[in-house]
C-alpha cells in the first residue's frame, strides 16, 4: 500500500530544502575559497545568472560590464572566475602543467568519438599531431590555389547576382564561399553554394547547432534536470543531426576511400595514411581513428565556415562605416595590382593595411566572443600574481580583453592603424600605449586554433578580390542595430545589404 506524504511532511521537506540552500549560499558568500573575489552577490551565490546570460547569447556583453565594475578578476559563478589580464594568457593556457578544458564547456561528440575540439590529454596531442601537417606553412602554400579559386568563384557568383539587382546580402555569399572552400579542403569537393545561382541553408543550420550546443552546455549544471532537457533537445534535433551525418559523413568516407592524392594538397591528404580504427579512447599511440576523423571533419567544417563568414561580413561592415579606412584599403589594393589574376595568397601578404584591417576586425568584434574555460589543479595556481584556489574554473574572454580600455587606446573604436608597423606614416604614436600582448585572436598554447593561418590567407585573398573587382556601398537601413548580435559560441548571422558596382563596366 502506497502511503502519500502528508502536508506536514511536504512542508517539512520544503523547509529543510530552503534551509540547506540558504546555508549553501551563506557558505559560498563567506567561507568558500573564492569568497574574497569580487562579483555580483547573485553570481557568487548561484550559477543561475551565468546560465541566464549564456543562454540569452549576451554573456560577452555582460562580462564586459562586470569587468568594468569589479576589476580584472570577477567571480561569475560559485566556482568560476573570469580574468581580464594579458599575463593570464601564458599563466592559464601555456604554463605547465597545462590546465585541462572544463568538461561542461564542450558539446559531447555525437558519434562518441572525440574531435580535436573535445579531445583532452594524450588523445588531443595524438589527434592534433595527425592533423598538423595539413595546416603547416608548406601545406598552406600548396593549398593556396584552392583558396584563390574559391575567392574567384565568389566574384563570379556576385556578378551573376548583379544581372537582377545591384544590392546583395554579402553575408550570405561569404557563407557560401567559406563553406565551399572548407568542404573542398576537407572532403575533396564543395557543397556548390557558389555554383550557378544555387541556394542552400547549411549555414543557418550550423548556427542553429551552435544555439542548441550552448543550451546543452548550460544544462549540465542542473542534474537531473539536465538529463531530461538534454533528451528533449536531442529529440528535437535528431532529424537534423542525422542529415548532417548522412551528408558530411558520406563525403569524408568518400575522401578517405580515395586515399593519398599526390596531385592534390588539402587538409585530409596527410591524414589518410594515419587512419587506424584501434587508436581512439585513450590510446597513446599515433594516428587518428575513422570515427575521430568523421567527428572532427564535421566540427571543423562548421567552425571554419561560421567564423570566416562572421569575420568577413563584420570587416565589410566596419569598412563601410569608416570611409577613411575603406578608402585607404581600396587604394592599397588597387595600387598593388593591375589585374584580378595577380591577386593570390602570396601576393596579398605584403598588404600591411589589409592585414591591419583584418586584425582590427578580430579585435573589436571577435566572431567567437567566448570565455575559454580551464580548471586549476587541486594545488592551485598563481595567475598574474594572484593565487587561485584549486579546482576553480578560470578563463579569458576573447572579446573582453581585446576591447578593455585598460589595454587599448580608443578601445571600442575601429582603428586599423594601431596594427601597422610604427615606421608606417599612417601609424599614430598614441597606439604605443596599446598592450598588444592582450590580443590573442586564436588563443595560445597547445589548444590554440590550428587553422588561424588558413583563415588569414582566406580572408586576405577574398577581401582583396572583392574590393578590387567592386565598389561596395552600404545599403542596409538597419545599420545601427547590426552589431547587436547574440553569440552562441559564434555570433549569430545577420544579413548585410550592400550595393555592388562592377568596376569592369
UniProtKB/TrEMBL annotation:
CDD domains according to UniProt: CYP60B-like
Heme recorded as keyword: yes
Transmembrane segments: 6-27
Presence of the UniProt keyword Transmembrane helix in the record: yes
Sections of the chain in a coiled coil: none
Binding site for heme: 449
Known cofactor(s): heme
Family in the record: Belongs to the cytochrome P450 family.
Protein's name in the database: Cytochrome P450 monooxygenase-like protein
Amino acid at each position: 500500500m502506497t502511503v502519500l506524504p502528508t502536508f506536514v511532511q511536504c512542508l517539512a521537506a520544503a523547509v529543510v530544502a530552503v534551509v540547506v540552500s540558504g546555508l549553501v549560499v551563506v557558505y559560498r558568500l563567506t567561507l568558500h575559497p573564492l569568497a574574497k573575489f569580487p562579483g555580483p552577490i547573485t553570481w557568487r551565490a548561484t550559477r543561475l545568472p551565468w546560465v541566464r546570460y549564456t543562454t540569452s547569447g549576451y554573456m560577452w556583453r555582460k562580462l564586459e560590464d562586470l569587468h568594468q565594475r569589479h576589476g580584472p578578476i570577477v567571480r561569475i559563478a560559485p566556482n568560476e572566475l573570469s580574468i581580464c589580464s594579458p599575463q593570464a594568457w601564458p599563466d592559464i593556457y601555456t604554463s605547465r602543467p597545462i590546465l585541462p578544458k572544463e568538461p561542461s564547456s564542450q558539446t559531447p561528440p555525437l558519434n562518441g568519438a572525440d574531435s580535436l575540439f573535445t579531445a583532452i590529454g594524450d588523445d588531443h596531442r595524438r589527434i592534433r599531431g595527425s592533423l598538423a601537417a595539413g595546416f603547416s606553412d608548406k601545406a598552406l602554400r600548396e593549398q593556396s590555389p584552392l583558396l584563390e579559386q574559391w575567392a574567384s568563384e565568389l566574384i563570379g557568383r556576385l556578378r551573376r547576382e548583379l544581372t537582377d539587382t545591384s544590392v546583395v546580402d554579402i553575408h550570405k555569399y561569404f557563407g557560401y564561399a567559406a563553406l565551399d572552400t572548407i568542404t573542398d579542403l576537407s572532403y575533396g569537393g564543395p557543397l556548390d553554394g557558389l555554383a550557378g545561382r544555387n541556394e542552400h541553408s547549411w549555414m543557418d543550420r550550423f548556427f542553429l547547432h551552435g544555439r542548441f550546443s550552448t543550451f546543452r552546455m548550460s544544462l549540465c549544471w542542473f542534474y537531473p534536470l539536465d538529463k531530461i532537457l538534454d533528451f528533449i533537445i536531442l529529440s528535437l534535433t535528431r532529424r537534423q543531426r542525422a542529415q548532417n551525418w548522412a551528408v558530411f559523413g558520406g563525403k569524408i568516407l568518400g575522401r578517405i576511400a580515395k586515399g593519398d592524392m599526390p596531385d592534390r594538397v588539402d587538409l585530409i591528404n596527410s591524414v589518410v595514411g594515419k587512419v587506424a580504427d584501434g587508436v581512439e579512447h585513450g590510446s597513446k599511440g599515433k594516428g587518428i581513428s575513422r570515427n575521430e576523423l568523421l567527428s572532427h571533419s564535421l566540427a571543423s567544417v562548421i567552425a571554419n565556415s561560421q567564423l570566416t563568414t562572421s569575420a568577413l561580413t563584420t570587416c565589410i561592415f566596419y569598412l563601410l562605416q569608416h570611409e577613411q579606412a575603406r578608402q585607404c584599403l581600396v587604394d592599397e589594393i588597387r595600387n598593388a595590382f593591375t589585374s584580378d589574376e595577380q591577386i593570390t595568397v602570396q601576393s596579398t601578404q605584403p598588404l600591411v593595411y589589409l592585414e591591419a584591417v583584418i586584425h582590427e576586425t578580430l579585435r573589436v568584434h571577435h566572431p567567437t566572443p567566448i570565455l575559454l574555460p580551464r580548471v586549476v589543479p587541486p594545488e592551485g595556481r598563481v595567475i598574474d600574481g594572484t593565487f587561485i584556489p584549486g579546482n576553480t574554473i578560470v578563463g579569458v574572454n576573447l572579446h573582453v580583453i581585446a576591447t578593455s580600455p585598460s589595454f587599448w587606446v580608443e578601445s571600442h573604436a575601429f582603428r586599423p592603424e594601431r596594427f601597422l608597423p610604427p615606421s608606417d606614416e599612417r601609424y599614430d604614436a598614441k597606439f604605443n600605449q596599446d598592450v598588444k600582448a592582450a590580443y590573442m585572436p586564436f588563443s595560445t598554447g597547445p589548444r590554440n586554433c590550428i587553422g588561424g593561418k588558413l583563415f588569414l590567407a582566406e580572408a586576405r585573398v577574398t577581401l582583396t578580390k572583392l574590393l578590387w573587382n567592386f565598389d561596395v556601398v552600404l545599403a542596409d537601413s538597419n545599420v545601427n542595430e547590426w552589431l547587436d548580435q547574440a553569440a552562441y559560441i559564434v555570433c549569430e548571422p545577420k544579413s548585410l545589404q550592400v550595393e555592388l558596382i562592377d568596376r569592369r563596366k
